[in-house]
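Lab manual, section 2.4: Encoding a predicted structure.

Procedure: take the sequence of the chain (259 residues), apply the prediction step described in section 2.3, and record the output as structure tokens. A sample record is shown.
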Amino acid sequence: MSTLTLAVRDSSTMLRRNLLHARRYPSATLNLLLTPVMMLLLFVYVFGDAMSAGLGGSGADRSDYVAYIVPGILLMTVGSTTIGAAVYMAMDMTEGIVARFRTMSIHRSSVLIGHVVGSVLQSVMSVVLGVAIGFRSTGAGVLEWLAALGLVTLFSLALTWIAVGMGLSSPNAEAASNSAMPLILLPLISSAFIPAETMPGWLQPIAEYQPFTPAIETLRGLLLGSEIGHNGWLAVTWCLGLTVLGYLWSKALFNRDPK
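Recorded output:
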């Protein structure tokens, strides 16, 4: 068989392995799937009235705030889901299974691809569930929904490759979980919950010049029919750049000689 055929076959096998892990540990999978639900319940039904008043004035209500925060919560869910990829990758490295894979006649990158594709599928499932929880798009047609799904998938792919690199560079699963924490913290200082221009002056550059804000604004524009502006190409650039960086970093770490 050709090299490409072997790579696809072995990557499919590793993907099945990761999906079997998810099925055998349903608590972790349910935790990922329920994250957007819990976030929506918290920010809509607990903080909804206060936050919507600050966002849109006295005429705003919970539905206005739901429409505003859902894109941010969806991409925040992607960030939290990819932490699992870092943890599982670190577990594979420390528990010896990767050493066993190195002795087998399989495509070496298939181990990484299995982790990445499995995490991306989980992220997309979480996002679809979050959209189904009471969110109603305004002004989004079929093309906008397809573009939104493509953006979420590309963003998840980029963060997952970075998370896999974090897992490979960590000595254990606990360290991998801690090193991936910026993927959860960055959305909190983006435009996910409040407009960046309402933040203190020293914090606005951090909110504006990071990958989450242009991706959130692009997703918000696609789903709500608002102006996207330059955020579209910025989001795609961030995604492609992080994907290439994460892939090269992960491949270099995985191919290095074991200590």
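Check your result against the sample. The two ends are 33 Å apart (CA to CA).
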